Amino acid sequence: MFRGQAVQPLSVAPRVMPVDTMPVNRGEPPMSLEEMTVKMKNPLKPTPANLDHGKFLFLTDCAPCHGESGDGNGPVAHLLKDHPKDLISGTSKVLPDGYIYGVIRDGIMLMPSYDDAMSPNERWDVVMYVRSLQNQPPASKTASR
Ligand code: HEC
């Protein structure tokens, strides 16, 4: 039988991250939710392309729980012990962008973390889209797609 060359653990440098893969927290200093809430501002402009991308991500990743309109009544909401938050009315409207960003990154209670599932720009696109949902008149909320 052919014997491969033995490689001792860490005797060679670990593989370098391939280009265009997504390391966690790329370019971000480690920050607590409190720090993100206070310090982080959305660096992206609400261009149609960014909003479209945010909408795509929201419908894929958030709407199952929070609903397409963001009202907290997504199709799997009834399976959860604690109800997903209504993101479009009441106190949600005054949540700082940095807080929403931080919750997406780290998750909260039953909500999963999107730390390695979304890049920072993708999280900001989602924040931007949530803000746009909050600013829609009630009538158009049910027909958000
Ligand atoms: C598995 C279901 C689920 C998914 C998927 C999910 N959430 Fe949540 N989310 C929750 C639940 C449940 C809570 C309430 C947590 C708690 O009890 O504090 C929550 C809370 C939040 C909050 C905090 C609101 C507040 O008032 O503090 C925000 C913001 C939020 N979600 C945004 C999102 C966004 C944006 C996405 C998509 C990237 C998403 N969520 C995906 C279940 C989910």
Overview of the molecule:
There is one protein chain. The chain is mainly α. It has helices at residues 33-39, 48-66, 97-106, 120-134, 138-141. Helix 3 packs across helix 4 (120-134). It is elongated and about 70 Å long. Heme C binds at residues 61-62, 64-66, 80, 82, 84-85, 87, 92, 95, 100, 103-104, 108-112, 114, 126, 130. Residues 61-62, 64-66, 80, 82, 84-85, 87, 92, 95, 100, 103-104, 108-112, 114, 126, 130 line the site of heme C.
Key features?
145 residues; mainly alpha; Cytochrome Bc1 Complex, Chain D, domain 2; 38% helix; 0% strand; binds heme C
What would a concise description of this structure say?
By secondary structure, the chain is mostly helical. The protein has helices at residues 33-39, 48-66, 97-106, 120-134, 138-141.
Topology:
Elements: H1 33-39, H2 48-66, H3 97-106, H4 120-134, H5 138-141
The protein binds heme C (HEC).
Heme C (HEC) binds next to helix 2, helix 3 and helix 4.
